[in-house]
Amino acid sequence: MDDQIIRVTRALNHPIRIQILYYLNDNQKSSVNNLVKQFDVSQPAISRHLRILEEAKLVKSEQVKQERYYSLEDKHVIKILDVLRRHVNEDF
């Protein structure tokens, strides 16, 4: 099986990571500190989630002075999440 597919599906296997992806989609980019405030999760936990998303090539980061900013690397993931959301919300 394709290793990248495995990395992506593992990255999507946590509600905070999915929320981070939607947040970055809506806000273009964010610092780690801002994400900590937004999700009320510890800085080490947010950093761990971001590392997993970055390893899956779903987000990218850039260093600006003392702050690291994250943004979506692949907006296709939002389309995939939206399809999944519609699917699970359908009445059968």
UniProtKB/TrEMBL annotation:
Keywords: DNA-binding, Transcription, Transcription regulation. Residues 1-92 form the HTH arsR-type domain. Pfam families: HTH_5. CDD domains: HTH_ARSR (cd00090). Transmembrane segments: none annotated. It comes from the Bacteria. GO terms for molecular function: DNA binding; DNA-binding transcription factor activity. NCBIfam families: HTH_metalloreg. This is Transcriptional regulator. The lineage of its organism: Bacteria, Bacillati, Bacillota, Bacilli, Lactobacillales.
